[in-house]
Write a structure and sequence with these properties.
- Helix content is 41%, strand content 17%.
- By secondary structure, the protein is α/β, with parallel strands linked by helices.
- The protein has a 7-stranded mixed β-sheet with strand order 6-2-1-7-8-10-9. A 3-stranded antiparallel β-sheet has the order 3-5-4.
- Strand 1 (124-129), helix 6 (135-147) and strand 2 (156-162) form a beta-alpha-beta unit.
- Helix 2 runs antiparallel to helix 4 (79-89), helix 5 crosses helix 6 and helix 10 runs antiparallel to helix 11.
- The longest helix is centred in the middle third of the chain and has 20 residues, at 100-119.
- It starts with 23 loop residues before the first helix and ends with a helix.
- 37% of the residues are buried.
Length: 308
């Protein structure tokens, strides 16, 4: 998708017969608020989705119309609710070891030299950008532990970031239904998960403390200032930038290239591709890219791309 939010096409639903009055103007204002704060672009086909996801928020505050709701979240007093609105409209679809070929590549190609470097005292950093409820970041950690069970003894960390504070709370807790953990091999499940004490009558598993200690969950907005400085040897940014316009996407790839160490790997979503003129990357597998060693001629150039 490119550009800003579009006016709903003729015939787009206006919910006069629904519980809350919801007009095309309401949708356009909410879509623009979301775009300007997060970079996520909603087209007119998402109008029913916006209505469905935000009705709970209107009930919570006692609003009868979306016009009053959007007026409230535009004020300083409504800043907290504005954040909750954006979280409600953020799609969080993830699972353990999603796109398995990425983790095979990580295990067999990217990690072995990094494990050797860590054992020689080097710093190793990985980043899960748009981590949602944590399955991706924990899958990265499990892949590392499968070839380096003592990884917690070395200077290896995984940064996991998301704009949504609710999903980050879930990720930090590290508690998942047993069915959700089924993609994890039996060996890794037995070693790195335990039954959750808080759900004795239900089938939930909790990540062990050692596994959790490898991952730091932090709030970050990909279109805002980035608190992380890198360098990272591995970045996972999958099925996140597809919601941004082309200019924003390319800016994010540029900034990630500047944060990747020479020879580092970037893993993107199954429907995502880097632009053809992204000369700082070369393909290294399906939706996997390696940063060229000479991608940046000088530290000053890297700082300019990062926006430092």
């Amino acid at each position: 998708m490119t550009g800003g939010p579009k006016a709903p096409a003729t015939g787009a639903r206006e919910s006069s017969n629904e519980e809350f009055a919801f007009t095309s103007s309401d949708f356009m204002h909410l879509a623009e608020m979301l775009r300007s704060n997060t970079g996520i672009v909603l087209d007119d086909e998402k109008m029913p989705l916006v209505y469905a996801r935000l009705t709970k928020r209107l009930r919570a505050h006692g609003f009868k119309t979306f016009r009053r709701y959007r007026a409230f979240i535009s004020t300083e007093q409504g800043a907290g609710e504005r954040r909750r609105m954006m979280e409600a409209l953020t799609t969080n679809v993830t699972r353990f070891f999603r796109e398995a070929h990425h983790f095979e590549h990580l295990k067999n190609r990217a990690l072995p030299p990094l494990v050797a470097a860590a054992r020689n005292g080097k710093r190793v950093r990985l980043w899960s950008a748009g981590c949602s409820t944590g399955e991706e970041a924990y899958s990265m950690a499990l892949t590392l532990l499968s070839i380096m069970p003592d990884a917690t003894r070395f200077d290896i960390k995984i940064l996991a970031t998301d704009i949504d504070t609710n999903v980050l709370d879930h990720a930090r807790a590290g508690v998942y239904p047993a069915a959700a953990v089924s993609p994890v091999s039996a060996e890794l499940r037995e070693r790195w998960f335990v039954p959750n004490d808080a759900n004795p009558d239900e089938s939930f598993l909790r990540v062990r403390r050692d596994l959790k200690s490898l991952v730091a969950f932090r709030t970050a907005n990909l279109i805002g200032p980035w608190p992380m400085k890198g360098p990272f040897q591995v970045i996972f940014c999958r099925n996140t930038v597809i919601y941004f316009d082309e200019i924003t996407r390319n800016d994010i790839w540029n900034k990630m290239a500047a944060l990747l160490a020479a020879g580092g790997h970037l893993y993107v979503g199954h429907s995502e591709r880097l632009p053809a003129d992204a000369h700082w990357f070369r393909p290294d597998g399906l939706t996997i890219y390696r940063r060229e060693d000479d991608a940046f001629a000088s530290p000053a150039h890297a700082r300019s791309v990062r926006g430092d």
